[in-house]
């Protein structure tokens, strides 16, 4: 019983460290309405403000990464591998190893080409 309690507490602690979902993180950046046209002409900061709306309107996990690229345009770059399109969004005051702003990453399964997860780096 004691071992079970310790294991349960450890699991809860790890869950608490995992941080917020990308949707919750995106809401902290703003609530500007997303449209593909607005995204194309938007600044990096305005794109960050559209992120919550984008994620709400377009459930991209499970869809081909090509759909995200068709919707958002050419990626700013790629995260770790060429399969993971990434876009710099949000305020330039945020600093990371990837530059100024958040990196919006569409993690993609190499074999299927489908998005498996969406991340915002660094976490808000």
Describe this structure in words.
This protein is α+β, with helices and mostly antiparallel strands and about 120 residues long. The chain has one domain. It has five helices and six strands, in the order αααααββββββ. Mean pLDDT is about 85; it is low at about 1-20.
State the helicity in percent bands: 40-55%
Mean pLDDT: 87
Shape verdict = globular
- Rg, rounded, reads 16 Å
**Total number of helices:** 5
List the strand order in the largest sheet.
1-2-5-6
Span of the ends, CA to CA: 37 Å
Number of domains: 1
Low-confidence blocks of residues:
1-18
Largest sheet, if any? 4 strands, antiparallel
Q: How much of the polypeptide forms β-strand, as a percent range?
A: 15-25%
SSE run: HHHHHEEEEEE
By secondary-structure content and strand pairing, the structural class works out as alpha+beta
According to DSSP, the number of beta strands is 6
Which SSEs are present, and which pair or pack?
Elements: H1 2-17, H2 22-27, H3 36-41, H4 44-57, H5 65-72, E1 77-78, E2 85-89, E3 95-96, E4 99-100, E5 102-108, E6 115-121
Short description:
This protein is α+β, with helices and mostly antiparallel strands and about 120 residues long. The chain is built from 5 helices and 6 strands, in the order H-H-H-H-H-E-E-E-E-E-E.
